[in-house]
Amino acid sequence: MKTDVLLGLQWGDEGKGKVVDYLTPGYDIITRFQGGPNAGHTIEFDGKKFVLHTIPSGIFNKNTINIIGNGVIIDPYIIDTEINQLQQAGIDVFSKLFISEKAHLILPTHRLLDAVYETAKGKQKIGSTLKGIGPTYTDKASRNGLRVGDISRFDFMEKYEAAKKRHLMLAANYNKNIENIRIEGLSFSEYETLWIEKLETFRKFTKIDSAYFLNKALDSGKKVLTEGAQGTMLDIDFGSYPFITSSNTTAAGACCGLGLSPSKIGKVYGIFKAYCTRVGSGPFPTELFGSEGVFLREQGHEFGATTGRPRRCGWLDLPALKYAIMLNGVTDLMLMKVDVLNNFDSIKVAVKYRINGVETEELPFDMTTTDIEPLFVELPGWKQSLSGIHHYNDLPKTLKDYISFIENKVNVNIRMVSTGPDRLESIFRS
Ligand code: GDP
Ligand code: IMO
Ligand code: MG
């Protein structure tokens, strides 16, 4: 067997959580392979709403095992809040969630460093979620990180103190008033005390080597789905650098983040919204600044699931989408949030860019400093509610034309159309 991969093709928040949860009954195992609590994946069913940050979105199915792979970074404090939320809903997290011993830990001082680095960037700030993502992956790459498997070692606290000392020295170089920085609304020492307490949570988890576990599972015929976090345009190599996150969000990242070879990747589900959003700073060629952008944000309830920040909104960007499809080898597309466009008379789609007077469908080396003019095609809107529609053929013709337009441009079929946040508002095409 091979693992299917489901990932975002834009700047994150495409609706990955909703679709993973929907597809979960067809799989034995759901995994996460990169990122950390910068992610916010929303799942809605039976009138209930959950937001997951670290835990895979398969956790709501009683028969499915969930795995946090080695490529993920974990904050004991945040995962503990997720576990509490799930336990209150009657979900037995510890029997269904296994964690790689090789996943790195986000320390309280990583969060402190994230805050001082962002402040020091001034106008050039990334707009990070401030969950310590950049500093934790930096320590991983510079061979200074602490891993989940280290927690049970006799010298863990010694190593923790050494890392903390190093981080505090670094932070003090940037900011003389680090004692004023608050984490989760707490002072550093209050937060650190809780963080250390929450390390206990890890003792209750089954810790695994995700490479052996998943390869054996696939060999024995288990069905595995891998859930991406963030989106392709935030990939550390292929996103709009430096306005990116610190991991490979693309399909190749699934191999390194779990311990699977490229030949073990099956279908690649690419998820995108019928428009674009971005939260944080950085280039966004099709961004809408006026009342249309505000209307789109209101219609789509576009506010961050992790930080609550308003998301920037704009039209669908086909050059960026084609780039993402190419990088990920997408086999099946999933079009999300079409209902958000119900009240638009017409819908614009960027089909090309004009850069220095030349038309192109390719993204430039540096999207940040290059002046990109998107060239739009305008299509008619469908101007009707989609609620109650459960079959593709019953969708309005104008919406089906819009879907065909995208398919013809990107040469990949759209297999699923999402018409609302609930699990059941999902239309599959055979
Ligand atoms: P993720 O990070 O990719 O899992 O996405 P988020 O959860 O951050 O953001 C997606 C938001 O859109 C959530 O509030 C979802 O409940 C919501 N959502 C998902 N699919 C749809 C849809 O088809 N229509 C509408 N209106 N909302 C949706
Ligand atoms: P999900 O999985 C949207 C953005 C941040 C910031 C940049 C770097 O819910 O789609 P970081 O905290 O990684 O240092 O932030 O990346 N970002 C996201 N935007 N959805 C996400 O995750 C994101 N995770 C990070 O806003 O611009
Ligand atoms: Mg999100």
Description:
The protein is α/β, with parallel strands linked by helices. It contains 12 helices and 20 strands. The radius of gyration is 21 Å and the shape is globular. The mean pLDDT is 96. 6-O-phosphoryl inosine monophosphate is lined by residues 8, 11-13, 38-41, 126-129, 131, 133-134, 229-231, 234, 245, 279-280, 305.
Can I get a quick summary?
The protein is an alpha/beta fold and 430 residues long. The protein has a ten-stranded mixed β-sheet, sandwiched between helices. It has twelve helices and 20 strands.
Major beta sheet summary: 10 strands, mixed
What is the arithmetic mean of pLDDT? 96
- Enumerate the distinct ligands: guanosine-5'-diphosphate, 6-O-phosphoryl inosine monophosphate, magnesium ion
Helix fraction bin: 25-40%
Low-pLDDT parts are none
Helical run tally:
12
How many whole angstroms does the radius of gyration measure? 21 Å
Describe the strand arrangement of the main beta sheet, using strand numbers: 9-7-5-2-10-1-11-15-19-20
The count of DSSP E runs of length 2 or more, i.e. the number of strands, is: 20
Query: Which structural class matches the secondary elements?
Result: alpha/beta
Provide the β-strand percentage band.
15-25%
How far apart are the termini? 22 Å
Shape, please? globular
